[in-house]
UniProtKB/TrEMBL annotation:
This is ROK family protein. PANTHER family: BIFUNCTIONAL UDP-N-ACETYLGLUCOSAMINE 2-EPIMERASE_N-ACETYLMANNOSAMINE KINASE, ROK (REPRESSOR, ORF, KINASE) FAMILY. Belongs to the ROK (NagC/XylR) family. Pfam families: HTH_24, ROK. It comes from Agromyces rhizosphaerae.
Length: 391
């Protein structure tokens, strides 16, 4: 039966209602039949039929009863979140982080795993299989229910040609055909996203931004992402925002004569050297001890000058209403660094964006991967309901 001939039939209407019923349970949590009637806009008999079909299909279950002021207690219905799951993964050269994701956005435990220091011991498939197993064990979830894996990487995969991987921090991973190889080996849908793009996605979804913004990532690497009306600009080949490779501005010579690229100017190595010049002793964290240091203001002032220069290419091309500073370096500087960067940009250029610290401080890349994986799991589950109803 084609879509055109199916519309308006009892089966099609039932599938639409079933999808709407499951959707409100995913969005609002356990509900009574009366509340489902109100949210979906159907009668009580229709709501009862929806619940019967969804229970029979294994999509929902009865979750106890709730007493009422008048009349008998009411059955509470809840979506079965164990039917379809995803796993979000964020990894770099040293550590892998992962968590289970479900269609309702439940907060599941985060697991961490140290990666081999020897590049020859790295294995993409093995690392992701471990991530899935460890995340599912921590969430007491069945790994067989995982349908989607969303991976945030420091780099990007060209979506065309041979799917070339561009990353300097994933030794041992296939440099071509990565996406196809992972889907074959894991037998699941695999999404591979740039880490900064995922941080921007988290900023939109969890930071509640409503304007167009650019996110400038300051950590071991330097990158940018642009979000316009909720849509990320990834570029034709997936490499939009890789500003760390750009030559350092000529005006940076007075700040750091040895800086050849934007990465040299504001990457972790440059920030660590700046910190040491002010008496800090970074060990792994470029700005360790900054919060309690009497040199904090001086460090942030000098760092802001560097960040303002690094941001100019982003501002010149995109002219965003807001510039969000994300990543470990930005998190250490917080709102004070953002204010100093804003002041410097407005004093030395023609642009005047609002500059703010990221609202997503805890594992922003993993948060973005969780948002994306959750959306895919939810959409697949709702599509399955519709297919079952029409069938």
């Amino acid at each position: 039966m084609t879509d055109a001939t199916a519309k308006g039939t009892p089966a099609w209407l039932g599938a639409v209602n079933d999808r709407a019923g499951l959707s409100v349970l995913l969005e609002h949590g356990p509900l009574t039949r009366q509340r489902i009637c109100e949210l979906v806009g159907v009668s009580k008999p229709t709501a009862s039929l929806i619940m019967q079909r969804l229970i029979a299909g294994g999509f929902i279950e009865e979750r106890g009863r709730v007493s009422r002021s008048a009349g008998p207690s009411a059955v509470v219905y809840a979506a079965r979140l164990d039917r379809s799951l995803g796993v979000a993964v964020d990894l770099d050269a040293r550590e892998l982080r992962a968590r289970v994701v479900d269609a309702a956005g439940t907060e599941h435990p985060l697991v961490r795993h140290d990666l081999p220091a020897d590049p020859g011991a790295r294995d993409a498939v093995g690392e992701l299989r471990h991530a899935i197993a460890a995340a599912c064990a921590a969430a007491s979830a069945d790994a067989a229910a995982v349908r989607t894996v969303c991976i945030g990487i420091p780099g990007y995969v060209d979506p065309g040609r041979d799917g070339a991987l561009f990353s300097e921090t994933l030794p041992g991973w296939p440099t071509t055909g990565l996406h196809a190889a992972l889907e074959r080996a894991l037998d699941r849908e695999v999404l591979i996203e740039n880490d900064v793009d995922l941080a921007a996605l988290a900023e939109r979804a969890l930071g509640e931004r409503s304007d167009a913004f650019a996110l400038l990532w300051l950590g071991n690497g330097v990158g940018a992402a642009f979000d316009a009306a909720g849509e990320l600009h990834r570029g034709s080949f997936g490499g939009a925002g890789e500003i760390g490779f750009l030559p350092a501005p000529a005006t940076a010579v007075g700040i750091d004569p040895d800086a050849r690229t934007v990465q040299d100017l504001v990457g972790a190595g440059a920030v660590a050297r700046l910190a040491r010049a002010h008496g800090l002793e970074p060990d792994g964290d470029a700005l360790a001890g900054l919060a309690d240091s009497p040199a904090r203001d001086a460090v942030l002032r000098e760092l802001a000058e560097r960040v303002a220069l690094a941001a100019l290419p982003v501002l010149a091309v995109l002219d965003p209403a807001a510039l969000v500073l994300g990543g470990p370096t930005a998190a250490a500087g917080g709102a004070d660094l953002a204010a100093a960067v804003q002041e410097r940009i407005r004093a030395t250029s023609r642009w005047y964006p609002e500059v703010v610290a990221s609202a997503v401080v805890e594992a922003p890349v993993l948060a973005g991967a969780s948002v994306l994986a959750g959306r895919r799991v939810r959409r697949a589950l709702l599509d399955e309901v519709a297919e079952v109803g029409e069938g």
